[in-house]
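Revision sheet: structure tokens.
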Amino acid sequence: MTTVNELDKKRMLMKRDTDELVRVHEKNAASMWRATYHVQPVTGLMNDPNGFTYCNKKWHLFYQWFPFGPVHGLKHWYHVTSPDLIHWENRGVALLPTGKYENSGCYSGTAISEGDTIYFAYTGNYRDENRVRRPHQLLATLEGDEQYTKAMRPLITPNENYTEHQRDPKIVRIDDMYYIFLGAQNKQEQGVILVYCSDSILTDWKFLGELKVKGYENGFGYMVECPDVQKIGLHDVLIFSPQGIEPSKDEFRNKFNSVYLIGDLDLETLTFTPDGPMQELDRGFDFYAPQCASQNVYSDCSIMSAWFGVPDYTYPPTDEEGWSGLQTFTRELTIRKGKLYQTPVRGFESLKKDELFCAKNGEIISDNLHGQMPNSAIIRIENPDTESLDLNLFSRNYVIARGFAIS
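Predicted:
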């Protein structure tokens, strides 16, 4: 397994590192574990999606990145773009932790675009001379494809009424005002969401208070990360990643969960009134920190990506090669009859190729599958016999079994 010492975990990318990283990237590209369509790190480790937005006829996605190994070292932002949310192009490092208020990393954040400019709100992981964490919410801009500029002063300074855990600003524009929803922990060590507002992206951010979620007056576990607010149709959707949620029957069994509530957001009273209970976005083991894009391309849905991984876990096959992490396929979020539906973005239909196999009523109509091993396939079963359905893909000794089985 690739190891990184404590000193190298604090290493920031420098121009002199270019040749080294090119060699590492070329080596990684030959790995059997590299993905075809998922966004993946050029080198090192990726985690949370950041700054997901649409601008200048391209989708822009950034991710938390440590360049020098499969560990959570000093965080940078890396930039990828796509015309269709399927085919992604590496654009290079975006944000480096060069400023005073990000001396321990450029942590997660979001973006909105206005005209040809993308505005980023993100957490600067700042530690003082005594190594005490004092997180600041920072601003940067991207004009064109290359020109990044950081604001001189923080947008939001640490709120002393809360613990040091204040991070992951979600910036949105609602009517003529800008709002930031910030994950935080109160002094009772409960997870909460703080709300700030301004009539300008650049200055004068004011603290409005905590977002009150009816039925959840005691907060969400011990910390809220990566809050997100979406308007889907007539519904408001609150998305976040709470830490410390207690399992309930077969729900919230993962250590790290990502959840949502559908309801009504009232910014005058800072109240979110859910239509029903909190639900998991994904019960898979490797799904965290989802983020929806700031976009006006699709009016009927939100577009979401997430980290295909979770904190505190290792992934030995790729760790041994010196890299770790993927982004999930982007998903469309819609609401039908009060329920949230998640589907692959519509462009994935274009990836379908010729039909390989078809059978109807027990009779094989066409079979071009023999001798082929596609790396992905869509299997559609219509009107299955509810008494007996056995799907056997690889075994030579095929025996029909009662009930349902996939082998």
